[in-house]
Amino acid sequence: MPTKGRKPSQRDIARLAGVSQAAVSMVVNGKADQYHLAATTQDRVRAAMLEVSYVPSVAGRSLRGGRSGLLGVHTYESVFPVAVDDYYHEFLVGIEQAAVRARQDLILFASTQSADGTRSIYTRSGNRLNLADGAVILGSQQSNEEIARLAAEGYPFVYVGRREIPGVNLSFVTAEYAGGVRSVLDAVAAAGHERVAYLAGANAFGPLLERRSGFSAGVQALALHGTIDVVDPPESLDAPRLRAMVGAGITALLVESPELGRALATAAEAAGLTIPSELTIVALDHADNPMPWSRLAIPRREMGARAIELLLELLDDPDRTPRSAVLACGPLDLVSIAEARPASPRPRSEAATPLS
Predict the structure, then answer these.
(1) What is the pLDDT of residue 346?
(2) Which of 45, 126, 147, 352 has the highest Cβ tally under 10 A?
(3) 213 and 342: one domain?
(4) 223 vs 324: CA distance, rounded Å
(5) What pLDDT digit, counting tens, does each position of 142-188 carry?
(6) How many angstroms separate the CA atoms of 188 and 215, rounded?
(7) In this model, does residue 141 exceed pLDDT 80?
(8) Directed axis angle between helix 89-101 and helix 300-316, to 10°?
(9) Gyration radius of the chain over CA positions
(10) pLDDT score of 350 more than 70
(11) What is the pLDDT of residues 316-343, one digit of tens each?
(12) Which domain holds residue 117?
């Protein structure tokens, strides 16, 4: 094994895996299948590489025209294991399906997790992602400094979700969140609703800001009275608060997150409100409560698959030109969108009140 302070070599890997140095070279340079190296041998080599944190030179591998056939998945938060109704589940299913179609292996980077559950791309030995030809990155708690450094190094990666860092051109795949929210408002307005509230959480990052921007633009375009109400913590949305909203004339709610959805379900039951006859509700994201509510379909599985496709395009492009994809949200079901209840006439000055 390598002495302390020395980076592990292919000779070290060969000794640990019990194979020849030539076999290690085949795996590192993506030639193992070409030379019919047994799958079990390839697995031993890769396991040894992980054990000693061996990081092959991507530049050298590229000059030799080879790839390892490994695509990385780096998450800034823990996402495994995931239940079927977990936020990340569909992303990961899409990533796996696309990798299978492309006959690529996946490697999850998890060894850099810190005590608080967050993960880093870089360790004392360098960029861990170099074990793979390129990587798909997920997570809302990203380090902009790390992402900028990764881009400057020329490492090929695709972010799931729009990420904007000044001076850095990134490859990403995202959903048309603003357009999806506008489709919700169109359906709500068509049902006769005029006073609509958007229930927002304390977080404010990319996709959430796009949803809120779409709401603001939509209520103005449709001449609705719209408010964005920040609910923090979610449990503060109780029955009295919900009754006050309904008493103020609000007949439709757009719910930003699953946490707020659960709080709203509890508050509505406690307030004795019937959904949707007394209050129209639309969830703008994955909702894991059992209520039969209308939900905006975010194309998570398609986003995960498209991220792999974009990554493979990057790997085939000698110039590594950044690219992006914006996917439309799915059709909205109308199960909890009902016709608005008759309301008493409002003073002319209240019509189309600006957002608060």
Answers:
(1) 44
(2) 45
(3) yes
(4) 33
(5) 788 889 999 988 899 999 998 888 889 999 999 999 999 999 999 99
(6) 12
(7) no
(8) 40
(9) 25
(10) no
(11) 988 889 999 999 998 888 899 999 976 5
(12) 69-170+298-331
Other CB atoms within 10 Å distance of the CB of residue 222: 18
Structure tokens at 134: 């390129």
Query: Domain for residue 356, yes or no?
Result: no
Integer Cα distance of 121 and 150 in angstroms: 9
Tokens describing residue 209: 């800001």
Indicate whether 221 and 98 sit together in one domain.
Answer: no
- Do 284 and 236 fall into the same domain? yes
Contacts of 137 by beta carbon, 8 Å cutoff, 6+ apart: 74, 75, 76, 147, 157, 158, 159, 160
**Do residue 75 and residue 55 come from a single domain?**
no
* CATH number reported for the structural domain that contains residue 263 in this entry: 3.40.50.2300
User: 132 and 37, same structural domain?
Assistant: no
Same structural domain for residues 97 and 220?
no
For residue 212, give the nearest of 285, 264, 316, 140 by alpha carbon: 285
DSSP 125: T
Tell me: do 120 and 197 sit in the same domain: no
pLDDT at 136 over 70: yes
How many angstroms separate the CA atoms of 290 and 73, rounded?
31
Location of structure tokens 């004392």: 124
Q: What is the mean pLDDT of the chain?
A: 85
Whether the CA torsion 110, 114, 117, 119 is positive or negative: it is negative
CA 168 – CA 61 distance, rounded (Å): 25
**Based on the structure, what is the number of domains in the chain?**
3
Spatial separation of the C-alpha atoms in residues 157 and 168, rounded to whole Å: 13
Single pTM value for the model: 0.75
Separation between Cα atoms, residue 69 and residue 31, nearest integer Å = 9
Of 225, 202, 201, 205, residue with least CA distance to 215: 225
Q: Report how far residue 214's alpha carbon sits from residue 231's, in angstroms, rounded to the nearest whole number.
A: 19
Give the pLDDT band of residue 27 (cuts 50, 70, 90).
confident
Amino acid sitting at position 190: A
Same domain as 3, residue 24: yes
